[in-house]
Write a structure and sequence with these properties.
This protein is mainly alpha-helical. 82% of the residues lie in helices and 0% in strands.
Length: 84
Amino acid sequence: MAVVTAVGLLAGTLTTISFVPQVIKTWTSRSTKDISLGMFLSFCLGVLLWIVYGISVGDLPVIVTNLATLILASTILTMKLIYK
């Protein structure tokens, strides 16, 4: 694996992992009052576009890490819509 690919995977992994505490807190508290719906809608769309970009240029770190981020951010977004 090239060093650049490893750096990309590590960077993506660290930024993706940063969503885990928010998912856990939201899930356990069932509260989303302090989460911005607009921010998470635009963020999920942006991450989806990063995945499209990653696929179009064949960049594995961009695809994999943004897919994981989209799953976590979409989980928070879904809870925001459910726990109004």
